[in-house]
Amino acid sequence: MPEHILSGIKAIVAMKLRREGKLQKEIAEYLNTNRTEISHYLQGRHPSKKVLRTSQEILNLPPQYAVRIINTLSDDKEITSRIIKALYRVEVEVEREKCILCGECLECPYGAVEMGDFGVPVVNPERCRVCGRCTSLCPTGALKLIFLKKKMEE
Ligand code: SF4
Ligand code: SF4
């Protein structure tokens, strides 16, 4: 089932990117797939309407829940991160007052967390894959995924 839902969410992203003027080739590259699959998404041949409905219901959830679900759909964090970044404007915020400088968040698997001034970590948005691991690692809740204006509504 997760792979069906992943396909449904990819199809929704493909349609969104198409509306934004991206070419099929560009969408295929972005979603790391082939043009035939993108063509099926755009023409409604795949996945099924039922899968698309369920996928859309997930995206209708508050973004913090939708992102958590998307992150469970694949171990390929490059692709989940691309999907999330196509759908939402999201970044990791560090609340300095809550940080106890424990360094746990430096365990980010993608090297996106770096030591900043006075030992308070900073997150490099280019490297961040929005996996949420650092927010679970932080013992004080100083790290949070912050959703800016939702791209779906732009
Ligand atoms: S959300 Fe994931 S990729 Fe981004 S900084 Fe945190 S651990 Fe690293
Ligand atoms: S895990 Fe939390 S408390 Fe520890 S250094 Fe990172 S932000 Fe600060």
Describe this structure in words.
The protein is mainly alpha-helical. It folds into 2 domains: 2-87, no CATH class; 90-153, 2-Layer Sandwich (Alpha-Beta Plaits), CATH 3.30.70.20. It is 45% helix and 10% strand. It has 7 helices and 4 strands. The strands form 2 sheets. It has a two-stranded antiparallel sheet with strand order 1-4. The chain starts with a helix and ends in a 7-residue tail after the last strand. The structure holds iron/sulfur cluster (2 copies). One iron/sulfur cluster (SF4) binds next to loops. Keywords: 4Fe-4S, Electron transport, Iron, Iron-sulfur, Metal-binding, Repeat, Transport.
Strand-helix topology:
Elements (H helix, E strand, L loop, with lengths): L1 H18 L4 H7 L4 H8 L6 H11 L3 H10 L4 H11 L2 E5 L18 E3 L5 E3 L9 H5 L5 E5 L7
Antiparallel strand pairs: 1-4, 2-3
Helix pairs in contact: 1-4, 2-3
This protein binds iron/sulfur cluster (2 copies).
Comma- or semicolon-separated keywords:
Alpha-Beta Plaits, two-stranded antiparallel sheet, 4Fe-4S, iron, binds iron/sulfur cluster, mainly alpha, repeat, 4 iron, 4 sulfur cluster binding, 45% helix, 7 helices, 2 domains, elongated, 154 residues, single chain
| Euclidean distance between termini CA atoms | 30 Å
Overall average residue pLDDT:
94
Instruction: Characterize the biggest β-sheet.
Output: 2 strands, antiparallel
| Number of separate domains | 2
H/E element sequence: HHHHHHEEEHE
Strand order of the largest sheet: 1-4
Tally of extended strands?
Answer: 4
SS summary, helix count: 7
User: What ranges have pLDDT less than 50 throughout 5 or more consecutive residues?
Assistant: none
Q: What form results from the Cα inertia axes?
A: elongated
Query: Strand-residue fraction?
Result: 5-15%
Class by SSE composition: mainly alpha
Question: Which ligands are bound?
Answer: iron/sulfur cluster
Helicity level, as a percent range?
40-55%
Radius of gyration, taken over Cα atoms and rounded to an integer in Å: 17 Å
Keywords: 4Fe-4S, Electron transport, Iron, Iron-sulfur, Metal-binding, Repeat, Transport
Domain HTH cro/C1-type: 24-66
InterPro entries: 4Fe4S_Fe-S-bd, 4Fe4S_Fe_S_CS, Cro/C1-type_HTH, Fe-S_Ferredoxin, Lambda_DNA-bd_dom_sf
Protein name: 4Fe-4S dicluster domain-containing protein
